[in-house]
Amino acid sequence: MSDLVGITVWITGASSGIGKGLALALAARGARLVLSGRNPEALAALAAECPGSLVEAFEATDLDSLPAIVARVQQATGGIDWLVNNAGISQRSLALDTEFAVYRTLMEVDFFAPLRLTQLVLPAMVERGSGRIINNASVAGKVGSPLRTGYCAAKHALVGWSDALRAEITQHGIKVHVLTPGFVATGIGANALTGDGSRKGAGQDPVDSGISIAEAAEQIIAGIMADRPEIAVGREGASEMQLLDLKRQDPEACFQLMASLAPKAPR
Fold first, then answer.
1. Percent of the chain at pLDDT above 90?
2. How many angstroms separate the CA atoms of 251 and 184, rounded?
3. Active-site residue (options: 151, 154, 158, 188)
4. β-strands 82-85, 54-55: how paired?
5. CA torsion, points 13, 136, 258, 184, in degrees to nearest 10?
6. pLDDT value at position 75?
7. Which tens digit of pLDDT belongs to each residue from 94-105?
8. Residue 204: its pLDDT value, please?
9. What pLDDT is recorded for position 1?
10. Which of 4, 23, 125, 264 has the fewest CB atoms in 10 Å of its CB?
């Protein structure tokens, strides 16, 4: 399949998880990729599987470095057609046990980093009159989930900002897509932050039972090509995917369900 030949796609958080799945699927369709993340070795290995890719490793929250990085990528590629803001980090800690610095980190990584990169890439898209911004949120960007107060806050912010941005820039020919993945088998659970900012580490996590990154990528690309503003990603009928409808149809029932799932701990 070569339906995306000539399209340049910049993916953050590309070295693993959904970002890696998207990179492989897009490369198979002929897209030219810019692969970004914090791990140069992992990005180089992925680039070897995606011929013609450009690797640009950087820390997503190093906002002061972004203008020079964007200028370099724009010059090297001639312009970005799709920007996939995929880099992110999750959380597994009760609000009562979470340090303020952890909340700040979650907002910086999951909200301010994609916002700032988009700000810098968007003007060239507007000048050209075309482009797509793809923001990877989560079901947690629509539903408040226990152990994820900071993650939910950041992802809700990302969804709201994306919706408002879409309203403003559709007049310029730019499309904004929001991804709301449920459970996808990635390392996001193991890499999630605990209350003191340390990694949760290996161990049982609901996301481990999710769809593969290859399945997720196919659902995402299908939604993008169909011009869907919001793209649900997950196993059809799965309990977490049903929450998207439940929140709209019966918010109180959704809240009660989430409350029943919260860990019960004496204080």
1. 96
2. 25
3. 151
4. unpaired
5. -60
6. 97
7. 999 999 999 999
8. 85
9. 61
10. 264
- 181's tokens: 């993945």
| Nearest by Cα to 32 from 18, 15, 53 | 53
Angle between the N-to-C axes of helices 251-261 and 239-249, in degrees from 0 to 180, rounded to the nearest 10: 140
Count of CB atoms within 10 A of residue 232's CB? 18
DSSP one-letter string for 134-186: EEE--GGGTS--TTBHHHHHHHHHHHHHHHHHHHHHGGGTEEEEEEEE--B-S
3-class state of residue 200 by DSSP:
coil
Is residue 151 annotated as part of the catalytic site, yes or no? yes
* Structural domains present in the chain: 8-261 (3.40.50.720)
pLDDT band of 266, cuts 50, 70, 90: confident
CA atoms of 240 and 148, how far apart (whole Å): 14
**Separation between Cα atoms, residue 58 and residue 267, nearest integer Å:** 42
CB 177 within 8 A of CB 223: yes
Q: Tell me if 245 sits within 8 A of 180, measured CB to CB.
A: no
pLDDT tens by residue, 35-85: 999 999 999 999 999 999 999 999 999 999 999 999 999 999 999 999 999
| List of residues 6+ apart from 104 with CB closer than 8 A | none
Determine which helix (DSSP H) or strand (DSSP E) holds 41, and give its type and residue range.
Answer: helix 40-49
pLDDT for res 191? 95
